[in-house]
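agent> fetching stored inputs for the zinc ion docking request
agent> found them:
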Amino acid sequence: MKDMSDTSLTEIPARHGKAVRVAKGRKLKLINTYGTQVVDTWAFNANDLHEFMSMEHTRPHIGSTGRIIPKVGDILRNNKRQPILTFLEDTSPGIHDTIIAACDRYRYKFLNYQGYHDNCQDNLFAGMAELGLTPPEVPQPLNMWMNNPVDKDGNVGWFAPVSKPGDYVLLRAEMDVVMAFSACPQDILPVNGVGCKPVSAQFQVI
Ligand SMILES: [Zn+2]
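agent> prediction call returned; pasting tokens
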């Protein structure tokens, strides 16, 4: 188990999940090492996993009338609308996604993939299992660097990330949390770059 005082870099291996405890007031730096990788990001109240960061509860409260992409200064809320994280820094162009569910085995069946495909849903469970935890459900993730814009007609695009190697976001825990990450294994759509090649990412608790 990763100690909360450990500020070293941890790799989120390509196509896999990782989780870490972050105490209230500490910060989590999530790094897009190669610039092309989407990282599905979750946060759970460490004292009650049924309380978790909720994109649908956050969207109405950010911006003046609500927004679908959080940005620096925004408070991310849990499913009781309490602050769980604050978005402190973002060196990327700020393109992230809050509307697309974590990929799962069923998603890859829709994409005509035969057999088992790594997926963010299973990565959430695997990452949390390393800490001895089981999430009670799979909340809508904050899909860091995922580029799925919604146009004026409501259509969703599927594009490669616009982030650069080494871009990072910095998030502050507003309660004791367990954060989980999946380096998305999507290699059929260009979610993780036009080369459709999932790679690793990194995080650091500071
Ligand atoms: Zn995924």
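agent> quick read of the result: The longest helix spans residues 120-129.
agent> awaiting further instructions
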